[in-house]
Amino acid sequence: MIKPAQSAHPNAIYFILLLVPLFWGGAFGVTKHVVTEIPPLTVAALRFFLAGLLMVAWVVARGGWDWAPIKRRWGGLMLLAVTGVLAYNYFFTVGIQYTSAINAALVIVVNPVTTALVAVTLLGEPWSWRLVAGVALCFLGVLTTITKGSLALLTSLTFSSGDLFMVGGVISWTAYTTLGKVVMKDVPPLLATGASTLAGAVMLVLASFTEDGWSRLPAASPQTIWEMAYLVIFPSVVAYFLFNVGIKRIGASRASAYINLMPVNAIWIAAVFYGEPVTLAHMAGAVLIIAGLLLITLFDVRAKTPAEKPSAA
């Protein structure tokens, strides 16, 4: 069986990565409904436990399960589980209850910036004017999108304990992205994603016992069941895998830039499926974000280091 990584065009990853913010952007609206019936930590635990089982089953079916790299990098894989699955989901699901959506978005959008800074500082990824300009345009675009072009919203913001939880989410995701670049030098992306997701899910299950959520599952509506299926398969399995492949192939800073498209996708999905209006500020923000992504990815003409050249997963 030919692996997708071997048969795809070297530049295909730039287009494939567009699916990541699409699936993650769609997860916001879906999760918003699911948590009305099932508590947040229980939702996260169920979502990632089932996703982890699917990933591991997929790896085993492809003959890719290998204990050797897992034993060699078990410490790094556990750190991926703690940062990207347990910590990020804990900070986000708890923090969103105590802060506004605008505050949460403003804090979380710092992820690509912090990831780029860490990648340049610790991983030796090159810093260029295209990266600087691209990050700035993406940040400005998301800012325009979530504030609807009104500076008054920025000046009136106050920070709460929920905002501090969101900062914890930013730190957790930055650590996950940076660690993934290091760990996946020795561990294939799918194997690393499956092992770390399942391990992190077990941690989430233990954390979920602090809330009375599992007893509510039998009473969940058919809509919630279908929405949970979406959360398990697309944002959790497919998006996480593609994101880790992107980190390995094009670097942590450029792969993380795609996260900026999440609010854009959340906007159009809300407009199409929930009838919410799209404003001029939304469209302006989308243009700025896409322009920033082009600067960071497609038009980055610097020479690639050997570690960043396309390689088989």
The number of helical elements comes to 16
Tell me what portion of residues adopts beta-strand conformation: under 5%
Number of strands: 0
Query: What is the rounded distance between the termini?
Result: 13 Å
**How many structural domains in the coordinates?**
1
Please mark out the parts with pLDDT under 50 across 5 or more consecutive residues, or reply none: 1-7, 301-313
Q: Estimate percent helicity.
A: over 70%
Query: What is the averaged pLDDT score?
Result: 78
The biggest beta sheet is recorded as: none
State the gist of this model.
The chain contains 16 helices and no strands. The chain is mostly helical.
Structure description:
With about 325 residues, the protein is mostly helical. It has one domain (about 5-310). It has 16 helices and no strands. It has helices at about 5, 10-15, 20-35, 40-60, 65-70, 75-95, 100-110, 110-120, 130-145, 150-155, 160-185, 190-210, 220-250, 250-255, 260-275, 280-295. The protein is globular and about 45 Å long.
Main features:
single chain, 313 residues, mainly alpha, 16 helices, 0% strand, globular, disordered N terminus, disordered C terminus
Secondary structure blueprint with pairings:
Blueprint: H1 4-7, H2 12-16, H3 19-34, H4 40-61, H5 67-72, H6 74-95, H7 101-108, H8 111-122, H9 129-147, H10 151-155, H11 161-183, H12 189-208, H13 222-250, H14 252-257, H15 262-274, H16 280-296
Helix pairs in contact: 3-13, 3-15, 4-6, 4-12, 4-13, 6-11, 6-12, 7-11, 8-11, 9-16, 12-13
